[in-house]
Design a protein that fits this description.
alpha+beta; Cytochrome p450; five-stranded mixed sheet; three-stranded antiparallel sheet; 45% helix; binds protoporphyrin IX containing FE
């Protein structure tokens, strides 16, 4: 058994090689509130790996704030916090007011309106990929799909889709040399310190959003940008330029990578569990439940972070004001206390109260119904068309301990 002293979830090598699971298990069992050292200028953080501890922190927003800092590991000064604050980094009444601006667009009922569009899109995507026989599942199936839906919700032209994907890759992949033009830990990123993800891509996203906002302000459009620029939040405080920029950027980034990786991970798990694939082909009515197991196993967001607002304790471990407390959703999703035999894929698992979208706190994923719909429709279309799929190489993992991403996954399809 490795000593918990040697485990550091700050170590990106662990994630790039696709196997942080042994480290999560080790911490969950032996050190559920574990101090992880980090390289300077960071100061280290508390890692929470048990499901109930994570839920406790997400719920207790008085003690564990989102707005004292950022929700990732980077440590920010006051100027950066102020410049980069998004809905995710806001607590209390203002957070609720910002969230309500878009809530109506993401209810199960509202997103059901995209179902026909999604079915058409899935069919076209699969036709093109399957015609090749061998293809990269990420590029040819999973990558464009979520962003095309978002492009429709934002009402932007299809021609801009690759720009949106590239921006997302550059920002979310800011610790992966293949995706980042400026690596988050590099000296060069210092000039971008006031931007989300310390990425110059954010400037391009802001510019693009500003242009759309100017076009749509004062008009009666029903797309997400029109809704954003033509409403005042319920607390009566209008969106500042920063509020609009960060909201727009969050919409562009949040639903894109996460859903893409969910689809790819789910396919991979089905390929590794042919009995589960066969079961879903035989009983497609199970697919809506299977989605929950897909999401549990995929856990596309490894972590978010909160900051302690005063001295406190978790499970008897003293925590000091200002300490970073990291909630590892991916570990909570494999906590055997909640999920018996957690590494087994069981598409009929009930209950399945996973925390892929967070759990119990006010920031619980706004787009969860949309993501569920996209994944469901993808597999309702895909599964009847295949008898199997074979990996032609191991998947290539994103070098990140934030997003559990797969960059490439070459496969061969066996058509039904
Ligand atoms: C499988 C796909 C997705 C996963 C795994 C995911 C995961 C998450 C997680 C873990 C959070 C933070 C929860 C917390 O701190 O309690 C979050 C927040 C958020 N997500 Fe998602 N997400 C997904 C898809 C989407 C989609 C499609 C959208 C919409 C475009 C979206 C929009 C958001 C927004 C706006 C927030 C911030 C909510 C707030 O601060 O109140 N997400 N998501």
């Amino acid at each position: 058994m490795t000593s918990t002293k040697n485990v550091s979830l700050a170590d990106l090598d662990l994630f790039e090689h696709g196997n942080p699971w042994a480290a999560f298990d080790e911490l969950r069992t032996n050190a559920p509130v574990h101090w992880d050292e980090e390289d300077a200028p960071n100061h280290g953080f508390w890692s929470l790996t048990r499901y109930h501890d994570i839920v406790g922190v997400l719920r207790d927003t008085e003690t564990f704030s989102s707005e004292r800092a950022t929700v990732n590991l980077e440590e920010l000064d006051e100027e950066q916090i102020e410049a980069r604050k998004s809905m995710l980094e806001t607590d209390g009444i203002r957070h609720r007011a910002l969230r309500r601006l878009m809530q109506g667009e993401f209810t199960p009922r509202a997103v059901a309106g995209y179902e026909t569009f999604l079915r058409g899109l899935t069919a076209t995507t699969l036709d093109a990929a399957f015609a090749k026989g061998e293809f990269d599942f990420v590029a040819d199936v999973a990558a464009d799909f979520p962003i095309r839906v978002l492009a429709r919700m934002l009402d932007v032209p299809d021609a801009d889709i690759y720009k949106l994907i590239e921006w997302g890759n550059r920002m979310v992949g800011n610790t992966d040399p293949e995706h980042a033009d400026v690596l988050a830990h590099s000296e060069e990123s210092e000039q971008y310190r006031l931007l989300p993800f310390r990425s110059p891509a954010a400037l391009e996203v802001f510019e693009y959003g500003r242009h759309l906002a100017a076009e749509r302000r004062g008009k009666d459009g029903t797309d997400l940008v029109s809704r954003l620029v033509n409403q005042v939040p319920e607390d009566g405080i209008p969106l500042s330029e920063r509020d609009f920029n960060s909201y727009f950027l969050l919409l562009v980034v949040a639903g894109n990578e996460t859903t893409r990786h969910s689809i790819t991970h789910s396919m991979r798990y089905l390929m590794e569990n042919p009995d589960q694939l066969a079961l879903l082909k035989e009983k497609p009515e199970l697919i809506p439940w299977a989605i929950e197991e897909f999401l549990r196993l995929a856990s596309p967001v490894f972590h978010f972070r909160r900051t302690a607002t005063h001295d406190t304790e978790i499970n008897g471990q003293p925590i000091r004001e200002g300490d970073k407390v990291v909630t590892w959703f991916a570990s909570g999703n494999r906590d055997p206390e909640l999920f018996p035999d957690p590494y087994r894929m069981d598409v009929t698992r009930t209950p399945n109260e996973h925390m892929a979208f967070g759990r119990g706190g006010p920031h619980m994923c706004l787009g969860n119904s949309l993501a569920r719909l996209e994944i469901r429709i993808m597999f309702e279309n895909l599964l009847p068309r295949i008898t199997g799929m074979t990996a032609l190489a191991e998947p290539d993992h994103l070098r990140s301990n934030f997003i559990n991403g797969i960059k490439r996954f070459p496969v061969r399809v066996e058509l039904a």
